[in-house]
Each structure stands twice: as C-alpha cells, then as structure tokens.
Amino acid sequence: VQLVESGGGLVQAGGPLRPSCAASGSTFDSIVMGWNRQAPGKQRELVATITTSGGRTNYADSVKGRFTITRDNAKNTMYLQMNSLKPEDTAVYYCNAYYLHKFYWGQGTQVTVSS
C-alpha cells in the first residue's frame, strides 16, 4: 500500500483546509484509514479514523466538531476537511492505512495555521 498526501499549506486561523490521501492498489475498500499529525517537538497523535465503508468515524477530542474524515473508495482517496483551524493545529499531517495487520504511512503534508 502506497500513500501520497497532498493539499496541506498555510492558512489563517479560522480558515479551512482539505488535505487528501491517495492510495495505490485495488484493495482500498478493504483498508481502514486514518490521519495522524505531529507538531514540532511533540509525539505523533491520532487525529481521525474511518472504517472501510466510511460508515464509522472516530476523532480526537481536540478536533471533534471541526474536522471531518471521509473517503471515496471509487477514487482510492481519503480526505480530511478541517474547519475553524487554530494555530495549535499546525503540524505535519500523515495519512495511514491498516491492512493485513500492518500499518502503512504516507510522507506527510505540512499544515501551518497563522494567528
């Protein structure tokens, strides 16, 4: 499973951003997906997860009500709609996949929120 993130960038506090994660292969609809992030000097933390069909999602308390994780299995792509962004959301955002008892990671996309 190969994962490629895109759509990060610089945004003002309060603004939106929607990074995406494209996955290779024909098994995307069998893969549990998620987003993690890592801020400078901090440990990587889970942001959100989504089941194979997209029917169930889970969020970190810090992003509930502001972020929405979705997936389009026809396009092998996952998204993270981020609204009401805060400076503390600044981090490298990583897409991850869990498939056949293994985790896979993308290279990350930088999200910077200015105050």
How does this model look, in words?
The protein has 115 residues and is mainly β. It is built from no helices and 11 strands. The chain has strands spanning 3-6, 9-12, 20-23, 32-38, 45-50, 57-59, 67-72, 77-82, 91-99, 102-105, 109-114. The strands form 2 sheets. Strands 2, 4, 5, 6, 9, 10 and 11 form a 7-stranded mixed β-sheet that branches. The radius of gyration is 13 Å and the shape is globular.
Task: Give a summary of the structure in a few sentences.
The protein contains no helices and eleven strands.
What is the number of helices? 0
Radius of gyration: 13 Å
The structure class reads mainly beta
Total number of β-strand segments? 11
Q: Helix fraction?
A: under 10%
What is the typical, i.e. mean, pLDDT? 96
**What's the N-to-C terminus distance?**
37 Å
Q: Biggest sheet, in brief?
A: 7 strands, mixed
**H/E element sequence:** EEEEEEEEEEE
Range of strand content: over 45%
| Shape designation | globular
Low-confidence runs (pLDDT<50, min 5 residues)?
Answer: none
Q: What's the structural blueprint in terms of helices and strands?
A:
Blueprint: E1 3-6, E2 9-12, E3 20-23, E4 32-38, E5 45-50, E6 57-59, E7 67-72, E8 77-82, E9 91-99, E10 102-105, E11 109-114
Parallel strand pairs: 2-11
Antiparallel strand pairs: 1-3, 3-8, 4-5, 4-9, 5-6, 7-8, 9-10, 9-11
Provide the descriptors you would attach to this structure in a database record.
115 residues, mainly beta, single chain, seven-stranded mixed β-sheet, four-stranded antiparallel β-sheet, 0% helix
